[in-house]
Design a protein that fits this description.
With 317 residues, this protein is mostly helical. It has helices at residues 2-12, 15-42, 47-76, 82-114, 121-143, 147-174, 182-205, 213-244, 262-285, 288-316.
Length: 317
């Protein structure tokens, strides 16, 4: 209901609906933060993962507060710079909250899927501290409208992301499982999108002329990096978790192949890649037609992923 009210309020410019929706989303995120914090408190045997999680929880609190402030500011105008607060909100949400969660859980999920050894902890801690410092500096620089600080934060973010990608590739190369399927094509593509996104951010603050660079940056962050990574992980983890909770005839474990169907995944991957590409080109070329075609492909891919999920649930039943 909170997301619906917030979206509805933004669509029609209704401040009360936005406030009600924003409060609803903030409350739900607060509940999520409590649940995550309780799990992190018990994860003492995974310190690097827990550290990323705590960083994500702190970022969640920051971007939720900024989100409510931005909604109220439409009528009261108490924020000195609405755009600066919006940029800080995006940084904390996209890189601080979702980014740190993705980085942290990757330290567990990627080696688990690849059946690889534990990753080097010193590189993991270096990536964590660099990522946290980059998020903190970028947020402060955005609020103070300091392009130099934003540029330095972007370089730090690129370094942290490079270490992260190095660690993940190490897990893939040293893992016993080499054929990881279509899901890892998406996951690897999301890593490339992450680097492109940060490079776009750096180019923007340095004044490199890129058409519609702010819109392109936000789209690559949300759809190119985060959404691609999330759907790749979901394709892999949903049947895995399902197979752990069911048993076949005679109590035998159910194989993953019995729970999955490849065709919807192929449709989703192709449509998602096409959607991200077409929408990005449409933003650069300022072409509404390309964006609409990309959105149609994205919708088709989303429906294919929904079919994949439905088939898993149906086979579980």
């Amino acid at each position: 209901p909170g997301i619906f009210m917030l979206t509805y309020g933004m669509a029609i410019g209704h401040e009360t609906a936005m406030i009600v929706g924003g409060i609803g989303v903030a409350v739900s995120l607060a509940v999520f933060a409590v649940v995550v914090a309780d799990n992190l408190r018990r994860a003492r045997d995974m310190p690097i993962v827990a550290a990323h999680g705590w960083g994500a929880v702190v970022s969640l609190a920051g971007f939720s507060g900024l989100g409510i402030a931005l909604i109220v500011n439409f009528s009261s105008g108490f924020l000195p710079d609405h755009q600066a607060a919006s940029i800080a909100h995006l940084i904390l949400a996209g890189f601080g909250f979702m980014g740190l969660l993705a980085f942290g859980f990757s330290h567990v999920l990627i080696p688990m899927f690849a059946l690889s050894h534990t990753l080097p902890p010193h590189l993991g801690w270096m990536e964590f501290w660099l990522a946290c410092a980059a998020c903190g500096l970028a947020t402060a620089a955005a609020l103070l409208d300091n392009p130099i600080g934003l540029a330095v934060a972007a370089v730090m973010g690129l370094c942290a992301s490079a270490i992260y990608v190095l660690l993940m590739n190490t897990a893939l190369k040293t893992g016993m499982r080499k054929r990881l399927g279509l899901s890892f094509v998406l996951i690897k593509s999301s890593w490339a999108a992450l680097m492109i996104c940060l490079a776009l951010g750096l180019a923007t603050v340095l004044g490199v002329p890129i058409p519609n660079e702010a819109t392109l940056f936000g789209f690559v962050l949300l759809a190119g990096w985060l959404l691609t990574f999330l759907t790749g992980i979901l394709q892999r983890i949903m049947p895995f978790l399902a197979s752990m909770h069911v048993a076949g005839a005679g109590g035998k474990p159910v194989m993953l192949s019995e729970l999955t169907t490849e065709l919807p995944l192929k449709v989703h991957a192709g449509c998602h890649a096409g959607a991200v590409t077409l929408c990005s080109l449409g933003i650069i070329a300022n072409s509404g037609m390309l964006v609409r075609f990309g959105a149609a492909l994205g919708l088709t891919g989303a429906m294919a992923l929904a079919v994949f999920t439905f088939l898993i649930v149906n086979r579980l039943r």
